[in-house]
Write a structure and sequence with these properties.
By secondary structure, this protein is an alpha/beta fold. The chain has one domain: TIM Barrel, CATH 3.20.20.60. 47% of the residues lie in helices and 12% in strands. It is built from eleven helices and nine strands. The chain has helices at 3-14, 29-37, 47-53, 64-77, 94-106, 127-143, 165-181, 195-204, 220-225, 236-255, 267-270, and strands at 21-23, 25-26, 43-45, 82-85, 111-115, 150-154, 186-188, 209-212, 230-232. It has a nine-stranded parallel β-sheet with strand order 1-9-8-7-6-5-4-3-2. Helix 8 links the parallel strand 7 and strand 8 (209-212).
Length: 276
């Protein structure tokens, strides 16, 4: 473990104390470089985007080695801190989480997202089980020489609508308390964008709250006003990029024209951003 990586971990941790940390998610080295060039203070990865780039559907279909190598390429390409979406940790046991965390740190990341879903759509790990998994991740980070690793504990209670609607808020609060005690640094609640509920959640939990935003959601300033500390967009930017690819290809193949390419960054704008 080198001092540069420890410094990046400290930087990422400190970014949760100021204005809301905005994380446009990257899926490969190229997208990470362009996102950093746009002014991002840190890079978050998206498991969906990385999965698609490697030819798989999202939802824990990659191997640990697949994800580690993708994160390594991203971390090597940028100077800002990188926090990696490692899905459910590539195995159910605490030992699986430990192995993933150690490998991701070895790839250069200084933060991880760890979710409490056993599979897309649920079910979720029981609170005590997920707490033990998170505790294993924290211990692994200390063993790897990066005790400052930022662990963003994701709960999918709202995303997958687990349990009765009236009990979901209390379930998330209970999970947040257990996850914090186990060593988590942040709480990620995808599927929840209601400002009143988020304000209530911010007041009820000790961890900084992270939301997943996108079209139709409140803007960053509105989230920030309710106390949200971190805003990411999941696979949203990947989807937008792939939409451009599909539209441009369709136009070229059906009309033989290039209108969808208008406004694109020039080759000479992009190429110098990369290593020579």
């Amino acid at each position: 473990m080198n001092e540069v990586q420890r410094a990046k971990a400290s930087t990422l941790r400190a970014l949760h104390d100021g204005p809301a940390l905005v994380l446009p998610n990257a899926w490969d080295a190229g997208s990470a470089v362009l996102i950093a060039q746009a002014g991002a203070k840190a890079i978050a990865t998206t498991s969906g985007g990385i999965s698609w780039a490697l030819g798989y559907s999202d939802g824990q279909n990659l191997t640990r080695a697949d994800m580690v190598e993708s994160v390594r390429r991203i971390a090597d390409a940028v100077q800002v801190p990188v926090t990696a979406d490692v899905e459910g940790g590539y195995g159910p046991a605490p030992e699986d989480i430990a192995a993933t965390v150690e490998a991701i740190i070895g790839a250069g990341a200084v933060g991880v997202n760890l979710e409490d879903s056993r599979a897309p759509g649920g079910p979720l790990f029981e609170v005590a089980e997920q707490a033990e998994r998170l505790r294993a991740g924290r211990t692994a980070a200390e063993r790897a020489g990066l005790p400052g690793l930022v662990i963003n504990a994701r709960t999918d209670v709202f995303l997958f609508q687990i349990g009765e609607p009236g009990g979901r808020f209390d379930d998330v609060v209970a999970r947040a308390a257990a996850y914090a005690e186990a060593g988590a640094d942040c709480l990620f609640v995808p599927g929840l964008v209601d400002l009143a509920e988020l304000e209530r959640l911010v007041r009820a939990v000790s961890l900084p709250v992270n939301v997943m935003a996108g079209p139709g959601a409140p803007n960053v300033a509105d989230f920030e006003a309710k106390g949200v500390r971190r805003v990411s967009v999941g696979s949203g930017i990947t989807q937008a990029a792939y939409t451009v690819a599909q539209r441009a290809a369709t136009e070229l193949l059906t009309k033989g024209s290039y209108g969808e390419l208008d406004g694109a960054l020039g080759f000479g704008d992009i190429d110098p951003l990369f290593r020579h």
